[in-house]
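Sequence and fold:
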Amino acid sequence: MAFPTIPCPLHIFEPRYRLMIRRSMETGTKQFGMCIADELKGFANYGCMLQFFPDGRSVVDTIGVSRFKVLSHGQRDGYHTAKIEYLEDKKVEGEELAELLKLHDSVYDQANSWFTSLKDNMKSQILSHFGHLPSKDPDPQASPSGPAWSWWLLAVLPLENRAQLTILAMTSLKDRLIAIRRVLIFVTRKRPR
């Protein structure tokens, strides 16, 4: 699962995907979409665009850029293709914004407490792969996908892909923060003391 702002190193070895990478470089976008697999449709209806910087290696360093919704599925030379529309969070103002900022700060503090309370070996694994928890954004609505720390947290929380996908598809930062808070409450209660 790929998320906005989160690194996603890929090992590209199948010829069809090497071709896909080459074609996305030739178009000049240097981007391609990634979705999790779906037994019925081939791939999920939501995903994240990845941007890469080619250097001739078989491992491609990518980073999540923007979320999207699949409008139609296709195939070309053995790899999946799709027509997509980009997702953006709905912005709120006034009283709703004041509530959102309060929720944002509260969930960030809860996330920081959860991460701080992890055992050192677990923290080390997370830090080596994902880096540190990004700092709190003074304007959580500045990015069309919301604050980077929320995506970092979704990448490190012990969640199944389907749950991550549901949260990735949300266009309400408030709803996404509430979902993250529920997960944090669950993993905090579940952990042995």
